[in-house]
Description:
- The chain is α/β, with parallel strands linked by helices.
- The protein has 2 domains: 4-100 and 293-311, NAD(P)-binding Rossmann-like Domain (Rossmann fold, 3-Layer(aba) Sandwich), CATH 3.40.50.720; 103-284, Rossmann fold.
- Helices cover 35% and strands 15% of the residues.
- Strands 8-7-6-9-10-11-12 form a 7-stranded parallel β-sheet, with helices on both faces. Strands 2-1-3-4-5 form a 5-stranded parallel β-sheet.
- One glyoxylic acid binds at residues 78, 99, 103, 157-160, 209, 211.
Amino acid sequence: xxxxxxxxxxxxxxxxxxxxxxxxxxxxxxxxxxxxxxxxxxxxxxxxxxxxxxxxxxxxxxxxxxxxxxxxxxxxxxxxxxxxxxxxxxxxxxxxxxxxxxxxxxxxxxxxxxxxxxxxxxxxxxxxxxxxxxxxxxxxxxxxxxxxxxxxxxxxxxxxxxxxxxxxxxxxxxxxxxxxxxxxxxxxxxxxxxxxxxxxxxxxxxxxxxxxxxxxxxxxxxxxxxxxxxxxxxxxxxxxxxxxxxxxxxxxxxxxxxxxxxxxxxxxxxxxxxxxxxxxxxxxxxxxxxxxxxxxxxxxxxxxxxxxxxxxxxxxxxxxx
Length: 321
Ligand code: GLV
Ligand code: GLV
């Protein structure tokens, strides 16, 4: 018979689902919102493949609920911190993800968020619409510019490098990066490898594009914010877990740093009563880094191709090794 694929949402981009429907017996969580955990555990039973998203926790309990016939977990994301990779390996379950195809989209959004935060766009738009715009004023709505600035990028993988290439076009003075390993691409981008502390101390803009792993968990803590300039703008488009969020809130409230732009938070969605929503020097986006139409379509196709390849015992186009 046909292989069984379970898709955790009913609103995944259609191009990927069309590919799966041609060869497989595909079932979906049938409501537009994410499946409650208990439902997810019920629905994965007996499936050969799971097409999931970063909001689905793929842990031992879920793998047990799926059963031993599960061959592949394929996530429509580049991040895989929601997947228990070690547990999948132990069970011989292959993992698919979507690197590369969202790099440009996420780098674009990172620049958009950086400019939105530093040039106070949400505040300015609000003022324009609500009567705060009484005349042109020389020091009103001012913020730090990118030209001549030092930009520090933490996590210099594909996305970090793509951000580096883009900020360079804004006539920045210097690009610093912090990464476990040295990156050959840094030379062409003109980025200099430094220690984490040096990056924090010297950068006017600190951008986090590091994957969430044990070594990066809450690396932006109270001590890290204290080392930043009090004029620094912090931007995070990786995972909320890289930040000690209470420490960030305190740093923003006490002007330890100038402002923050966050596409990722803890938890997600961020509760409406979070102080982050009340701080004028903080911009919060609802995790839309890769939300360019073409990127999302390509991600869906790749997620499906990863499943089909794994079910057929072939090389997956993007397997997490
Ligand atoms: C988005 O955050 C992703 O990991 O794809
Ligand atoms: C990390 O996975 C990146 O693409 O930068």
